[in-house]
């Protein structure tokens, strides 16, 4: 009995399978080659504009680094603070000098207190903690919704498996690794954005970039240093201050100095209460075998003057540093640290990171 389907015919006779065009195996290779050529061309053009690849300093990246600090235990040297320690410390020098694995947990514009408190409550933290100390972090009122509080809360709400082995963590790590090496994604941009705003226009190089280890590199040769310096002072003093275009810098200096000299000191009682809590947090880490160091990073000019007016050293820092078992270093007491240039009054240039890191470690006896 003849079969209803001939063995010599394809299933269903003249079907879509027969009508589908054969794809030349060389086509995908050609597409990939064109894509690679486009990426290479964009990267070369961006490099010609002085654009450097950057990581995105995201909450997810911070949480992954925070989890790494816990996993490292006594093999970690953890940096806590704000932009001064994020900009000023060279992690390669730190690694070479201490033999420990650096973890950068500083958060731009944030208090160190929530992160140090989280480290103190984490029994895995048994290594070295270096706190970039700023007096204003101990003032009140504290903003419970600030970035540092949010980041630490996010870490504590995420279990260790999720922060290490989940699909989102692995995918995020791989994505960050690729994008932090491509100029097309610099500063969180998309390739089309980079094409439109940087390649097809006269884009200026970035003065600051983030590395995959969360370090921040600032190149002040890209900026007008006087404008940058006075802008920083205004931002920290009172952003509402403005000067008419063309105002002489000497007049700007005089006006800002007068405003700074009129500042009143912060309330010492609130500072003292918060200082006790910070000292207690440090003691918890040290009780597990760790070491906590508090370091005041270099400032300059009107920024130093402003911070001294708000927190006179004798009434604030000196009392904090004199507490039992507190390990503390102030840049003004270390000539090699004080000699480092601070172009905007608050942050150093990346060319000086190694020198500052070495000077700090010498002062800490590391």
Tell me what you see in this structure.
The protein is of the alpha/beta class. The chain has a domain at 80-143 and 205-364: Rossmann fold (3-Layer(aba) Sandwich), CATH 3.40.50. The protein has helices at 16-19, 26-48, 59-72, 83-88, 91-98, 113-121, 147-156, 160-165, 167-179, 191-199, 225-237, 249-261, 268-287, 301-310, 317-321, 335-338, 353-364; strands at residues 76-80, 101-104, 128-132, 208-210, 216-218, 291-296, 327-330. Strand 4 (208-210) and strand 5 form a beta hairpin. Mean pLDDT is 86; it is low at 1-13.
CATH-derived architecture of the domain at 80-143 and 205-364: 3-Layer(aba) Sandwich
Task: Describe the main β-sheet briefly.
Answer: 5 strands, parallel
Helix segment tally: 17
Strand content: 5-15%
Query: How are the strands ordered across the major sheet?
Result: 2-1-3-6-7
Report the principal-axis shape: globular
> Strand pairing plus helix content: what structural class?
alpha/beta
CATH-assigned fold name of the domain at 80-143 and 205-364: Rossmann fold
CATH secondary-structure class of the domain at 80-143 and 205-364: Alpha Beta
What percent of residues adopt helix (DSSP H or I)? Answer: 40-55%
Low-confidence stretches: 1-13
* Straight-line N-to-C gap: 93 Å
Number of strands: 7
Q: Give the overall average pLDDT.
A: 86
C-alpha-based Rg, rounded: 27 Å
List SSEs in N-to-C order.
Answer: HHHEHHEHEHHHHEEHHHEHHEHH
